[in-house]
Amino acid sequence: MTYYINIKWDEDAGVWCALCDDIPLALESNSFDALLEKTKIVAYEILVLNNKTTTEVKLCFKYLSNLDYLREIV
Fold first, then answer.
1. Kind and range of the H or E element at 33?
2. Contact 9, 19 (CB under 8 A)
3. Alpha carbon 51 to its chain's center
4. Which terminus of the chain has a lower count of CB atoms within 10 Å, N or C?
5. Which of 15, 18, 22 is nearest to 7 (CA)?
6. Judging by DSSP bridges, how do beta strands 58-64 and 2-10 pair with one another?
7. Do 73 and 33 touch, CB atoms closer than 8 A?
8. What is the per-residue pLDDT for 74?
9. Rounded distance, CA 50 to CA 71, Å?
10. pLDDT at 31
11. What tens digit of pLDDT does each residue of 6-58 get?
């Protein structure tokens, strides 16, 4: 089974977020690398607790950018 996890930077909180409704999962971390490692461990633990594991679990990370660009026209 493949699970898609959205990764985004929360500017207001100053943390990286990992979100997945299918697992369900919502994590935060100050470090991008730490968030990825934490997500790999916690996602599998949640799947086991919810009896959603199969012989193969694949986590796919998707980076969501919410950058807005303003361009001043002179």
1. helix 32-49
2. no
3. 21
4. C
5. 18
6. parallel
7. no
8. 44
9. 48
10. 96
11. 999 998 999 999 999 999 999 999 999 999 999 999 999 999 999 987 778 89
Helix (H, G, I), strand (E, B) or coil at 34: helix
In whole angstroms, give the CA distance from residue 43 to residue 57.
10
Closest C-alpha among 44, 64, 62 to residue 54: 44
CA torsion sign for 35, 11, 5, 21 is positive
Non-local CB neighbours of 46 within 8 Å, separated by 6+ positions:
23, 24, 25
* Residue pair 7/61 in contact by the 8 Å Cβ criterion: yes
User: Which CATH code for domain 2-64?
Assistant: 3.30.2390.10
